[in-house]
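Chapter summary example.
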Amino acid sequence: MAGEPQDDCLFCKIVAGLIPATIIRETATTVAFRDINPQAPTHVLVIPKAHHMDVAALATEAPELAVDILRETKAVADDEKLDSYRTVFNTGSGAGQTVWHAHAHVIGGRGMQWPPG
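The structure predicted for these 117 residues follows.
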């Protein structure tokens, strides 16, 4: 069921404190932590505490949480003193999503090329 923790979800386990992560921010609805495979000097993931499989599901099932995620990406960028950064949501395996829990990547601290990837 949408929003309910999933036993097999890595990010649900991080939210529950069952798997360690370098948490840098936490609100009532979100957690932000450092990516274990950073693609830039700053690479932070911002996730909703509630389980939603991707950002498309999140936008449909709990749009208020999507707003919380976006608000927190800005807070992370401010805390990390990033004057420019990229926010990425991968949706589906073809786009590179490997954890099936909605999350935003906040990536910065180096120049970003376009198009990405």
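To summarize the output: The two ends are 33 Å apart (CA to CA).
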